[in-house]
Structure prediction request, 200 residues.
Amino acid sequence: MKFLKRLVVIVLLAIGTQAWAQTTESPSGNIMMSHAIILEGDTVPYFVLPIYYCYPPLKFKNKKEENFYWRTVRDVKKVLPYLKHIRKVIEQTNQTLMLLPDKASRDAYMRNFEKRIYKENEESFKELTLNQGKLIIRLLDRETSSTSYELIRAYRGSFSAGLWQMFAVVLGADLKSRFGTKDEDAVIERVINLVEAGQL
Prediction:
């Protein structure tokens, strides 16, 4: 009876999703497992292939352009994990803040959160170069659809955002900058795509 119940559940799941694992024989004669879908009444193996980017070959006008490209490759590889982490933290913080009942509790949460997050990440962020820090500021807009300035203003208020903007300008950065507005952003986007696809 237990076996029959399990069989019914398995069949219902298979019908509901119309996708399951199927044993397939590869051309080399080895047996492999694959997902399958039902297409016009026929069961067809289903494979998700990775994205492969095919850009035209780069032609550098001079050594400065070439150095910029390879520095961007190095910096993107370094900062991408930080950006993914920051996006995740922002999403979790927003979810938590939405559950808090009033402004006082949200402010208290943010004060404690700021201390904790600073302590957890201080050492790893010290390893970043100035250029990598600037790149994170630029790519936050790409990753979260909000500039660094907008994020600081949302969590800390306009006064704090203004102070941090002045500090950033002194260091040659701009918290209000949008990704995709500068010529080099096309190169950065290309590098990000290739790095994320494992092609670089």
